[in-house]
């Protein structure tokens, strides 16, 4: 499996970064590259560093990290929305979009500081020789500052997303209510390239896609200015990943000798955890829910849809014990089936009326969310459950050919095969030592530099 996963990553390497899939996703994606770097660190710490450095070279002046960095060698019609839709170099000029590369104008979940820290730990000597942390730090700090300041639409300190693509779980039923207010763009006005490579029953519907296009075009036409769109949601998964990366950035600052900044950042991560609980936790349901800031009055309303994003805050070390215990109980209950009827935790409530085991984020299980939950379970002392989920993830990864996502009951693969983060995170599960995570941002990490791994094809970039 190690060699098959390594080969999948080799096949997706462009020379400067790794695409999620050659056919379906032929450019660089933001949170994909973070997860891919976490796996690559076991094969080539240098290539893992370059993966992240390539992404951050496309960072905008206001601090945002765009969710797509376009490869100019790829034809425009290979993916939609393409660079001529986003117009980053013109529409994004006021926000500081780079002039030398074309990008999208929206963002994705901020896993990057966690990835940078784990990549550093894979080979600290190489990292220090290349000043990897010193060069990454100001970019990560600007990225977090953008999210915590410019995206605080609710005024409570949490970051909001302005498009479902930003949260990463694109067409989750959690977005149905907030999206229902958006008038869709006529499908005749654009061509969906994703349907050339994926079965229509696995992909978002034309109605959903039309709403995505409308929201993205409106944001572009506002010159990517934040604060005035139809869609603004505080999401538990997005914010949990931001808080986790705040802990990682605190570790990075401590490593760089910035101890005062490190202490302040760790305190902020703890405070943000409490804010997350206060605003998005539902004790009666034992789950975190998204808050739709454009619904109801005042602070908006929680969206009563159970998505896997509501379990992701389990990765946070300062989560109150009662909340962590309730999250584990919910994960193992009928809605998510951990350790029961589901082989992997689904993206959406197994009992929900909108559940679909094949259609993108409306039910299938994904490797990145299950990888996060494995870490969260282990962090909160659920070793047996974490071990069981790890075994299931590796079994399904191998059986499905590192599929993009799978049927949560059967493990049958859907979407692309040889998918970037599926291969990378399988490698991480194979080669990381979960018992030795004493250097991670949560207080537990392995120095994987000592892991004996074949690195043929990865030493030289």
Automatic annotation (TrEMBL):
Matching entries from Pfam families are given as: MGH1-like_GH
Q: Origin, by domain of life?
A: Bacteria
Keyword list, A-Z: Glycosidase, Hydrolase
Q: Which residues form the Mannosylglycerate hydrolase MGH1-like glycoside hydrolase domain?
A: 25-422
Q: Which InterPro entries match?
A: 6-hairpin_glycosidase_sf, 6hp_glycosidase-like_sf, Glycoside_hydrolase_63, MGH1-like_GH
| Homology family | Belongs to the glycosyl hydrolase 63 family.
Could you tell me what this protein is called?
Mannosylglycerate hydrolase MGH1-like glycoside hydrolase domain-containing protein
- Give the organism, scientific name: Streptomyces durmitorensis
């Amino acid at each position: 499996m190690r060699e098959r996963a390594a080969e999948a990553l080799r096949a997706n390497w462009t020379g400067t970064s790794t695409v999620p899939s050659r056919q379906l996703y032929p450019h660089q994606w933001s949170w994909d590259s973070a997860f891919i770097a976490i796996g690559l660190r076991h094969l080539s710490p240098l290539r893992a560093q370059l993966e992240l450095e390539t992404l951050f070279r496309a960072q905008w002046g206001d601090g945002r990290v765009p969710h797509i960095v376009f490869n100019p060698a790829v034809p425009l019609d290979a993916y939609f929305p393409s660079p001529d839709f986003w117009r980053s170099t013109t529409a994004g000029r006021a926000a500081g979009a780079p002039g030398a590369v074309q990008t999208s104008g929206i963002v994705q979940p901020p896993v990057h500081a966690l990835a940078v820290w784990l990549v550093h730990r894979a080979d600290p000597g190489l990292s220090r020789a290349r000043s990897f942390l010193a060069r990454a730090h100001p970019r990560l700090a600007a990225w977090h500052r953008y999210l915590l300041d410019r995206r605080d639409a609710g005024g409570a300190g949490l970051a909001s997303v302005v498009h479902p693509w930003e949260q990463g779980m694109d067409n989750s039923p959690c977005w149905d209510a907030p999206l229902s207010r958006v008038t869709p763009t006529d499908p005749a006005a654009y061509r969906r390239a994703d349907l050339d490579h994926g079965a229509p029953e696995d992909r978002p519907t034309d109605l959903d896609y039309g709403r995505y296009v409308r929201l993205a075009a409106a944001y572009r036409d506002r010159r990517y200015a934040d604060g005035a769109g139809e869609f603004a949601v505080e999401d538990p998964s997005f914010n949990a990943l931001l808080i986790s990366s705040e802990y990682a950035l605190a570790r990075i600052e401590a490593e760089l000798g910035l101890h005062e900044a490190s202490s302040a950042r760790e305190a902020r991560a703890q405070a943000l955890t409490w804010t997350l609980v206060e605003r998005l936790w539902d004790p009666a349901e034992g789950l975190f829910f998204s808050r739709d800031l454009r619904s109801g009055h005042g602070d908006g309303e929680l969206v009563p849809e159970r998505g896997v994003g509501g379990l992701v805050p389990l990765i946070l070390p300062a989560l109150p014990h009662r909340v962590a215990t309730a999250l584990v109980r919910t994960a193992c209950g009928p809605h998510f089936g951990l350790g029961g009827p589901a082989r992997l935790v689904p993206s959406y409530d197994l009992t929900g009326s909108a559940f679909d085991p094949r259609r993108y984020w409306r039910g299938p299980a994904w490797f990145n969310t299950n990888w996060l939950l494995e870490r969260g379970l282990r962090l909160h002392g659920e070793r047996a459950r974490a071990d069981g989920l790890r075994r299931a993830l590796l079994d399904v990864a191998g059986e499905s050919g590192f599929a993009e996502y799978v049927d949560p009951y059967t493990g049958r693969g859907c979407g692309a095969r040889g998918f970037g983060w599926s291969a990378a995170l399988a490698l991480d599960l194979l080669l990381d030592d979960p018992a030795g995570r004493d250097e991670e941002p949560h207080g537990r990490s392995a120095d994987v530099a000592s892991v004996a791994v074949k690195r043929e094809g990865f030493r030289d970039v």
